[in-house]
Design brief:
CATH topology of the largest domain: Ribosomal Protein S5, domain 2
Number of domains: 4
Distance between the termini: 51 Å
Structural class: alpha+beta
Largest sheet: 6 strands, antiparallel
Number of strands: 32
Helix content: 25-40%
Strand content: 25-35%
Strand order of the largest sheet: 22-23-24-26-31-32
Radius of gyration: 30 Å
Amino acid sequence: MNPFDIEIFRQYLLRNLPNIHGKSKVFTFYNFYQSLLDSNDETLVEAYCLEFIEEYITSLKNYSAFCLAPGKSERLVSQLTTISALNSVQNFKHIIVVEAKRIRKEVEELLSVLSGSKKDISHNKLFFPLIEENGIQTVDTYGFLETVRITINKRKNENKLYVFPSVGVLDERIEKQIFDSFSYAIKYLGKYKKKFSEYHDIIIYFNNYSANYIGNSLGIALTVGFIEQLTSLYNLPFRINIQNNVASTGSINANGKINSVNKEFIEKKVEVVFYSPIDNFIISKNDETYALKKLDQLKGLYPQRDLKINGVNDLEDIFNRRNLINIFRQNILVRSYKASKKNWQISVLIILLYMITAIVLIRDFDENPSVLENEGKTLYIKNKSGRILWTKSVDFDSSLFSSRYSLNYVNRLLDINGDGINEIIITNESLKQYNGTQYGRIACYNSRGNLIWENNFHETASISTDSLQSYYISNLVDTTTINDKKYLIAFATDHTSVSSAIFKVDLKTGKQSNDILWHNGPIRDCLIIDFNKDGKKEIAFAAINSSFGKIAFGVIDPNNLTGQCPSCTFKYIIPAKLLAYIMFPKTDFSRRTRQIDPSLKIGCLNNNPDKKMISLESNDGGNTEAAINFILPYNSKNISISLKKRPGVLELLPPPHIKTRISDEILFWDGEKFVNQSNEVWDFR
């Protein structure tokens, strides 16, 4: 394009961007920037590049490579790589590289699905495909998979409908479908219960909501969801669960009949589902011919893709297929307890029955993990009675850990979703089970030992100190809540470059935040504490600064976990806003034995709230017979020192001088340089 055409495109974006959403918006930006790059005019590229770059990056954050042919995403990643090298966008390079890596990983997962592999994406959720309608002309089909969460409560007068996120005026077809689906769900369950409450609160939450939705093709998903919730609300003798990786499309009328979508839309929706991990797609029987023809066309490109089209006439047809819906009887004790809450005398009898049977049954039927035990290279997951639920092979060298952290740094029991059932988070899985790209990951397993999510830090890290492959080994720290979202704080060290980082992961999903604190040298310990007792939690960490060959101690606000520590030389990463960063001098033992780096074990920090201090212990120079403790008080920078050594060990220094000399050489980072400043209070403002 020439400059005139570029300007016309720019004016088009200014007029139409507010009305474009989702993947359509991403590829509108893609086309604009590709036109710029294809011009081969460096001056033109630099002149137009920055105006839309922030909005382009924002649109990428919600982009998924699924539900779209992989070639489109591959070209997008290629363009992002080119843009990240432009001089004018260096302030945005870090986030562009991170998003490009995330999209590249999703493309790899999609290609795996297209080659016949399975990937579970849901637990008891019924997906439905949506097609983007932005009013722009395009030959491409852009869509995504949506799910809904439904809550139903009884009320005394008139039905009330709540839809979240708020959409202003709800589309008439969606509103009608909601009430049609609810009416049929009540009618369908009438053979199991004679009387229902006349009025209800109906609460519907769209999980991936991105724009105003129109149409009624979510009818199957709504009806199944209503039946699922009503069986629970009215304590019916059975429950239903959606099998994993099932999607549907089609409205339902008042008699449970599945209505046709039409040829054009069913073909588009088959394409969206085909490029996703969905295994079974439920559609109207009347649309089956068009859907199968489109499926055959797509399988010509990817013949190993295993997607089944399930044409159905009505809801009963869906419920008769166990590959789609799992129907099971409710535990009689649970059902009896729920019913007995209406009558206290029955409740007392039920409780007595539970007390008599619990002693015998609890050991065998308690599936909630409560104890983690390491024996050799096996991790045992047990219930509170000590029964082994399952095991995991681990690659765990206990000599690297102090006793306090022998498990906490590598294995944790956490209830990630507040349902009262513990999940298990593991970082030290056996090397034999996993290839190089998976080793060192953080993995979250449910109570039955099934993988919920994983985080591979080396796949999201956006720096490299040399051409070697990065292998980051992650360690767990603790959980913290930021802006009402619960995060897992962790740190990772690259075993090739010895760069390290502290990062945070969404506890529910495993998705890594873009906020990363980088350090030049291995981080050995990390705590989440209120260090200066101001009512706010900070992250305190101990590390080896490889540039100086010294021990370092740092403090940073979890809400500002980004940038690089002093002496780091990573390009395009801003300096971190550290609340404190201290370097401790080498002792005479290191100097006399010519040790390059001091030695810190995992778990070298010890928080002592009673004494209002943190102590940092170093076995200096790897000397196991002598140790030095730096005592950091909460309320001042007057750091004290204590020495431990056994008889016959080489003297560190003549006793009268050692503490004074070491104290004099402690350095504090003032934001620009290292200075000596003791006897001052911490100022974290």
